[in-house]
Amino acid sequence: MVGNGGAANLHVSMRRVYPASYSIPRCQICGVHEHLCFCAGFPVFATRTRIVFLQHPQEAKKPTNSARLACRILSDASIVAWSRVDPPPFPDDAILLYPSLDATPLEPHELAGSATVVIPDGTWSQASRIASVLKNRPFLRRILPLGNATAWTVRQSDDPERISSAQAAAMALHLAGETEAATSLYDAVREAGRRILAMRGMVRSDPEDEPDLAS
């Protein structure tokens, strides 16, 4: 575990993230109202596995993006802007984590070294288009094990196994044996989602989340 590493990777994705019309400021990392932000309590982990979020331009503006949260916790994770006309280069042995038809299950031994795991970051439609453009690149195409319900419930899907980018990263880290980082990231994703839903009045807020108005 290290100091404040991952936050340095966020600057590109933070530009104009939230519309000025939002009356209550939100944290640019966890996406919740500033008085509900719990980022200060996050541990930060240096991981053997390098996580790269290949982010669609429209995703960078969304307050419900989970990749920024992952980069706050994982010092070696990064967000790379996606360009269809000029896709960024990656090592030939990089793992593209997306459930394409030719993808095979990700195995722990494939993460034994310092593997690079590339995760398309956007809506499922956007992620599908990113994976399609990359179909002729020499990636190792892999899919996560099935049966994992999403922890990021702020975005609705007909398929409960369509998980967020950050949760996909947590699952990859778990397979790599980096369980402490994986668990911390998963817990942060779940808690940020709960707080966002509480902001929307969709779940009951925890009294500990509320500001102390008497202070």
Task: Set down the secondary structure blueprint.
Blueprint: E1 50-55, H1 67-73, E2 78-81, E3 95-97, E4 104-105, E5 116-121, H2 124-133, E6 140-143, H3 165-175, H4 179-199
Parallel strand pairs: 1-2, 1-5, 3-5, 3-6, 4-6
Helix pairs in contact: 1-3, 3-4
The rounded Rg comes to 17 Å
Q: Biggest β-sheet, characterized?
A: 6 strands, parallel
The secondary-structure element order is EHEEEEHEHH
Ends: how far apart?
34 Å
Shape: globular
Biggest sheet: strand arrangement: 2-1-5-3-6-4
Query: What is the structural class?
Result: alpha/beta
Total beta strand runs? 6
Mean pLDDT: 81
- Measured as a percent range, the helix fraction is 10-25%
Protein described:
This protein is of the alpha/beta class and 215 residues long. The chain has one domain. It has helices spanning 67-73, 124-133, 165-175, 179-199, and strands spanning 50-55, 78-81, 95-97, 104-105, 116-121, 140-143. Strands 2-1-5-3-6-4 form a 6-stranded parallel beta sheet. Strand 1 (50-55), helix 1 and strand 2 (78-81) form a beta-alpha-beta unit. It is globular and about 45 Å long. The protein starts with 49 loop residues before the first strand and ends in a 16-residue tail after the last helix. Residues 10-21 and 209-215 have low confidence and may be disordered.
